[in-house]
From TrEMBL:
<dbReference type="Pfam" id="PF07883">
    <property type="entry name" value="Cupin_2"/>
</dbReference>
<protein>
    <submittedName>
        <fullName>Cupin 2 conserved barrel domain protein</fullName>
    </submittedName>
</protein>
<dbReference type="InterPro" id="IPR011051">
    <property type="entry name" value="RmlC_Cupin_sf"/>
</dbReference>
<feature type="domain" description="Cupin type-2">
    <location>
        <begin position="36"/>
        <end position="102"/>
    </location>
</feature>
<dbReference type="InterPro" id="IPR014710">
    <property type="entry name" value="RmlC-like_jellyroll"/>
</dbReference>
<dbReference type="InterPro" id="IPR013096">
    <property type="entry name" value="Cupin_2"/>
</dbReference>
C-alpha cells in the first residue's frame, strides 16, 4: 500500500514561474499518473486535449472547469468534493477565480503508454 496526501502535495507544489499554476506528480506507474495542481486566484490551465482519460477531483477551493459538449466548450463551477471525468481527447481546462483551487488529476492510461 502507498499512502498519499494530495492536499499537502498540492500546497507544497512548486510553480515554474509565479504567474503559472504549481503542479507535482504524486504517483506514477505504468497504469496511471496522479498529478496535483495548485492554482492561485486568476490562474488557469489553458484548454488542451489528452489521449488518456482524465479524472479530476477538486480537493479545496472553488473555480471553473471546462469540458466539451457536442464539440462546444462548456464551463461549470466547481467546489471541494466535486469530481469530473474527461474522455480521451476531450477538451479540458481549469481556472481559479477569487480563491486558491487545489485539484487532483488521475490520468489513465499513463501519458506516453498509448
Amino acid at each position: 500500500m502507498i499512502r498519499l496526501d494530495p492536499i499537502r502535495a498540492a500546497r507544497d507544489a512548486a510553480a515554474p514561474h509565479p504567474s503559472r499554476p504549481a503542479t507535482a506528480i504524486v504517483h506514477d506507474s505504468p497504469d496511471a499518473r496522479l498529478v496535483v495542481f495548485r492554482l492561485g486566484p486568476g490562474q488557469h490551465v489553458p484548454p488542451h486535449r489528452n489521449a488518456s482519460s482524465v479524472h479530476l477531483v477538486v480537493l479545496a477551493g472553488r473555480g471553473v472547469l471546462t469540458g466539451e459538449k457536442d464539440g462546444t466548450p462548456v464551463d461549470a463551477a466547481c467546489a471541494a468534493g466535486d469530481m469530473v471525468v474527461y474522455a480521451p481527447n476531450e477538451l479540458h481546462a481549469m481556472r481559479a477565480e477569487s480563491e486558491e483551487l487545489l485539484l487532483l488529476a488521475a490520468i489513465t492510461p499513463r501519458p506516453g503508454t498509448r
